[in-house]
Write a structure and sequence with these properties.
The chain has nine helices and four strands, in the order αααββααααββαα. The chain is of the alpha+beta class. It has one domain: Outer membrane efflux proteins (OEP), CATH 1.20.1600. It has a four-stranded antiparallel beta sheet, with no helix packed on it. The protein starts with a helix and ends in a 5-residue tail after the last helix. GO terms for molecular function: efflux transmembrane transporter activity; porin activity. This is Outer membrane protein TolC. It holds the Pfam family OEP. InterPro entries: OMP_efflux, TolC-like.
Length: about 425
């Protein structure tokens, strides 16, 4: 009866875990990515930075628009004054008040600066593209992180299921050992060994539950939501086995955000050189304004003065000699363009190297998945045969335990091979800039 009680308790435990897991939210990968896009702090910061670059793209920010200013100047003074005129007349006045009031508007407009303003506007547009590339990089990186964390949980969940299975088998073994001991066909040692192995399996299950719980916390953190939010993930892990290296390289040349950023940097450097060269041309500014001027004096030949009207003019400047600073600035700008070209070549080489290396790992993992799947099937068949033999007492407990552990390890290795294959797939799609957004 004891072994029946143990089996009944095991079934109740498995059923309780099944019901509890079904009651949890099943979080799909698509939902996890959507939540990350809405909540993740780094994505929000990158989005705000892009908004700043978009606002900066304006003709006024490039210096193409005039500036209009209003000004008011009011000067007052109180003085004790003495005037001696040419005819010898002396006029003295204490607390003589003087007031000078000037107000008006002024417009200044740079109408030519060697085309610097146009290069500046184009540079602002390229900076916006840089912000878009940085946002795309942040999106791809965070989505890649979510994918990796999600499929790690799938793997952990599969390993939990494998350990749950071995707990059931260990309970069966303990029940059979106790039954055989009761009828005198086995020693107490066999029962104790079965109990020790069951305890070992329960410890492994607890450790696995800890890893699973920590994996949930990590994924919740990436989703920027309450880290105690409970959920479960899907049970299956499928690896895309149709990736082709040449296609990935072609896509990476067009879509990899880090490579795009280097190309944009080169354009920015070229536009910077245009702005520097603009200093070789004259700068022409026009100005106009309307002012009102009023002066009141307690002492003097003019007691009150008023004037109002337009003023206008232009200003032209041309740099004739600046200690060869212009030449130095142009040389430095050209070197920066050359550096940006080298950075593009360097990024291309690094990208191709990463793709080739990751693709080789991807192919190896695909082969390992096939091999480990076969190993799991063989280990399962071996366990079934061993279990039947153990029930009729034709094999030792050590042989049974070996078959049991081989089965569990085979399931764990198969799950890990699938996970490593998925990580390789994610890495390749991240480098190619094609990971699903």
């Amino acid at each position: 009866m004891a072994h029946i009680k143990i089996l009944f308790q095991s079934l109740i435990l498995v059923l309780f875990c099944f019901v509890k897991s079904n009651a949890q939210e099943v979080l799909s990968l698509e939902s996890a990515v959507k939540i990350a896009l809405e909540n993740n702090y780094e994505i929000k910061i990158a989005t705000n930075n892009l908004s700043i670059e978009q606002v900066n793209v304006a003709i006024g920010n490039a210096g193409m628009l005039p500036t209009l200013t209003a000004n008011v100047l009011d000067n007052n003074s109180t003085q004790n004054s003495t005037q001696i005129r040419q005819d010898g007349t002396i006029i003295t006045l204490n607390n003589a008040k003087n007031n000078n009031l000037v107000y008006g508007v002024r417009l200044d407009w740079t109408i030519f600066d060697g085309l610097r303003m146009f290069a500046r506007l184009n540079q602002l547009k390229e900076l916006q593209k840089m912000g878009e590339a940085q946002l795309k990089l942040t999106l791809i990186t965070r989505i890649s992180d979510v994918n990796a964390a999600y499929y790690d949980l799938v793997q952990q969940q599969q390993q939990l299921a494998a350990l749950d299975t071995t707990i059931v088998i260990s309970n069966q073994r303990l029940a059979l050992a106790q039954n055989r001991f009761t009828i005198g066909k086995a020693s107490k040692l066999e029962v104790l060994n079965a109990q020790v192995d069951l305890n070992t399996d329960q410890v492994a299950l607890l450790r696995q539950k800890e890893l699973y719980a920590n994996g949930k916390i990590l994924l919740n953190q990436l989703l920027a939501r309450d880290v105690t939010t409970d959920f479960k993930v899907i049970d299956e892990l499928q690896v895309d086995s149709l990736l082709i290296l040449s296609e990935l390289k072609s896509l990476a040349e067009k879509q990899n955000p880090q490579l795009q950023a280097q190309v944009i940097n080169k354009k920015i450097a070229e536009l910077q050189l245009k702005q520097i060269k603009a200093a070789r041309y004259p700068t022409i500014r026009v100005n106009t304004g309307y002012n009102f001027n009023e002066s009141i004096a307690s002492l003097g030949f003019v007691a009150q003065f008023q004037a109002r009207g337009f003023n206008y003019g232009f200003n032209a400047t041309l740099n004739l000699f600046d200690g060869f600073a212009q030449n130095r600035n142009e040389k430095i700008a050209k070197i920066q363009i050359e550096n940006s070209k080298l950075s593009i070549d360097q990024q291309n080489l690094a990208l191709n190297s990463q793709l080739s290396s990751s693709y080789q790992t991807y192919l190896t993992n695909l082969e390992l998945i096939i091999l480990e799947e076969k190993n799991e099937e063989i280990a399962k068949q071996n366990l079934n045969i061993t279990l039947d033999k153990f029930r009729i007492g034709t094999i030792t407990t050590l042989e049974f335990r070996t078959a049991q552990l081989n089965y569990v390890n085979a399931k764990v290795r198969f799950s890990n091979a699938q996970f490593q294959g998925k990580l390789s797939e994610i890495a390749l799609k991240e480098l190619a800039g094609t990971i699903t957004l």
